[in-house]
Amino acid sequence: MNLDQIRQDIPGLDANVYFNTGGTGPSPAQVKGAIDSAYALMEEQGAEAPPVKQEIAARSEAARESIAALLGAKPDEVALLRSVSEGMNVVALGLDWQAGDEIILTDQEHPTGLLPWFNLRQRVPVELKFVPLTNDADELLERFAAALTPKTKLLSLSHVTAENGLRLPAREIVELAHRHGAQVLFDGAQSVGQFPLDLHEINADYYAMTGHKWLCGGMGVGAFYVREDLIDALAVSWTGSGAVSELDRVSGDLTWQPGARRYEFGNRAWPIYHGLGAAVDYIQTLGTDQIEARAGELADGLKRDLAAIPGVTVISPMDPALSTGIVSFTIDGMTGPEVAAALWERWQIICRAAMQGTATRLSVAFFTNNAELTTARDAVATLAKEAAA
């Protein structure tokens, strides 16, 4: 990787010490360029001009193809949505739920991974079961195996947890679930863009992702994957113009759009999807394997440095197989919000609290440099020393 060129491509990195890609990733200039290009075309020639509409549609489909390639999926398996939440709600409202059906979650799900199921439970008496996570891979799989029963219909899990960056063994979990007749939905908010993905190899049933975190693709854009053989069984819930290819306005007979496009509807700000496509292409050019290797090495070093500081405890996994760029830690005598606020006010380090406010999270990305790591390490050491005094 040419780190100097990468940091030139991402102008926001000059303004502060950026350790919050797990919240919102700073976008390279190529993202804004793709968005501006589309809006300029519409402004100059008219959004409804047939050649413009064709070009906007073509660029949108190119973005879909780029996302599908990143996920190891087919374009027809990918819907262009607005967020992880939207994709998860497609599943929550699209499956045929019966009283007593079980949904397995974990104790580290983001509110995005909880609210659709709490909402569903208010409508249908489903059972929610929570698996406590651990940084031991074998124990983790044993806990999921113990939670599965003949009533389990779905596992809804963060592929990578937002709290401490634990990377779940996705393929093994899917194999367990399928042996018990259950399906698996992954929240990919913290995974997509951090390491290579092949959803066909994982054999995931559903996968929801966003563009604004590790892809650095801007806010308000995301995508949803549904395995090809499950599309017709996953009913459309919310819908509107654009979701059908044929419609009889009198009888109501309709034909849904082919593939996952049926879950898209309504007028969209299509240029921001062009920005997402540009972000995906940028990530692919760097190489997700290279991104994983670089960020993983940097995060591993930071975890070792922080763990050596008196009064600091690292709660992210130390096992590289379960690790990501997320580094969460605690400082004795300080809450997560207190640490995050101090890091910003005194060192202009952007990060966030984690583990329900008990910890602090630093997100190490492919663009992080050694000077930033040194600043973070020294700042945490200073806070820990002050807290101890």
Task: Describe the protein in words.
The chain has 389 residues and is of the alpha/beta class. It has two domains: 122 residues, Aspartate Aminotransferase, domain 1 (Alpha-Beta Complex); 254 residues, Aspartate Aminotransferase, domain 2, CATH 3.40.640.10. It is 42% helix and 16% strand. It is built from twelve helices and 15 strands. The strands form four sheets. It has a seven-stranded mixed beta sheet with strand order 2-8-7-6-5-3-4, sandwiched between helices. The chain has a four-stranded antiparallel beta sheet with strand order 11-12-15-14, covered by helices on one side. A two-stranded parallel ribbon has the order 1-13. Strand 3, helix 5 and strand 4 form a beta-alpha-beta unit. Helix 2 packs antiparallel against helix 9, helix 10 runs parallel beside helix 12 and helix 11 packs across helix 12. It starts with a helix and ends with a helix. The mean pLDDT is 97.
